[in-house]
Amino acid sequence: MQGKTILIVDDDTVFSDILSEILREKGANVVIEHDGASGLERAKSLAPDIVVVDVMMPRMSGVEMLERFRATDVGKCVPVLLLTNMNEADTMAKRTEGDPTEVLLKTDWTLDQIAERVVATLAA
Amino acid sequence: MNWKAFLAAVSIFGLGGFLVYQYYASRYLIVRHDPTYASTYASELLTLALVAAFTALAFCTLFIYTALATRATARRMAFALSKDLALSREEFRRFYEMSPVPYLLITKGGKIKRPNKASLRLFGLDEEHLMGQDFFSFLSIPEQEGKKAMLKEMAARSVAIDQKEVLVTHANGAQRWALLSIEELLSGHAWMQEHVGLATLVDIHEQKELERIKTEFLSLASHQLRSPLANMKWYIDFLLEHRTASLVPETIEYLRRMYRRNEDMIDIVNTLLNLSRVEMGRIKVEKNATDLTALATSVLEELATAAQDKQITLTPSLQAEGTVETDAKLLRIVLQNLLTNAVRYTPNGGSVFITLTRSRREVRIEVRDTGIGIPPEEQGRIFSKLYRASNAKNMEANGNGIGLYMCKALVEGMQGTISFESVAGSGTTFVVTLPV
Q1: pTM value?
Q2: Which chain B residue lies closest to A12 (C-alpha atoms)?
Q3: Other C-beta atoms within 10 Å of A26: how many?
Q4: In this complex, is the C-beta atom of B235 within 8 Å of any C-beta atom belonging to chain A?
Q5: pLDDT by residue (tens digit) across B168-192?
Q6: Is the dihedral of CA B234, B236, B242, B246 positive or negative?
């Protein structure tokens, strides 16, 4: 995890703070953004190793941010964990099939499990 | 009637002939030997003949009168009947025309022949524009155009169609849901080359709309509920995993309870969401290579604590080597429901068995328990939505009556079957079969 850059995009500050704390403990370099638009800009300039992004956010949704990010050179093969409360999780996963995006239903995961998923994805 | 008349005629003529012969004999044969006797005999014969003639005449009159009277009645009845028929034809025509239910006569090829007023309103066209048009061009079935072709084919082969949901397109482009039935009409005219079908379209648009609003509301509400639940889960978990040093044991115990109750709430919301998806027809079966043994094992692991709390032994017998092409997510929901029920409705110290077997054609999953069973008189309703057996309600107040309803919907969605056998008081066995 040393030297890995993780971008967390979520308008829920408690979530991003706690998750970043857990990941920093593991030695990662964590950057936080609180809406889709600034998240997209940061993702493009930062070229992180992995992005954790929420779907429901002000200014730009996580899905739109992901689509735009995938359209850039930097964003083609960066793994993304998309967090959602939507019941259409399956359909979203299908739309982005083939690219390294994983859709996680929020209620199925604890923060520690999400952090572990980040570690496992980076290790893969 | 004819043979009776014939018999009567023969007897009358026979008797008449006999009397005439006797008279002749008395005048010309007997007279030569004994003229006095002959004259007496002849006068008596004459009397007899007269009486017979009168009787016959009376009978004939009566017979003719009866026949005439019957004919008149028959004629009157026929007249009345034809009047009634004409009236009922007119009544039927009016009934057909004025019925609020759209009716159309269509040919085998699907051409519209006779739309009634309600169908003109439904299509938004007048009779001229509707006559001769292809009936099926006004219908559509979203996402299932193949099904429409099938309906057309059925109509062409005069196979009855019973209450199929279709969208009807109005001339202004608006679409309404209707239940389509087509029944072949037996035409009285054998010379008619084309048979006609009677198509009925019952408008169920309002009903569908209400259903859609209800399920969408359910889905939206569930989604909104999930956000705070996920946050609760994360924060409590964070406190328990990363801040235990700063917490007193009592706080930790309460946090654990909060976490468990929150998980229960997440389960309820997930169930509601799954239900709304089943009802909106949004469940799509996505088959992938699934290790059934691993799937069953992981569901059993989730249940281990609940079973332990009640000292229930879980006995798996999983003999399905390799992977099977099925929808793991949906099957997981089915197994979770069946096994949770088995544990929930089995008294302390009982047993729950799960058996997995696989043949070349199907996978068979059996969940057996030594629980309270399902009362025989309630077994027919056990798969209905929101239904809970009376003894289940007595034993466990919590429960929503959705589990088995959903299991059936999901299993049938996967082209499988679900059935059960139960003896009240001694246990229940659910059997799910899925095609391989």
Answers
A1: 0.55
A2: B231
A3: 15
A4: yes
A5: 999 898 999 999 999 887 655 544 5
A6: positive
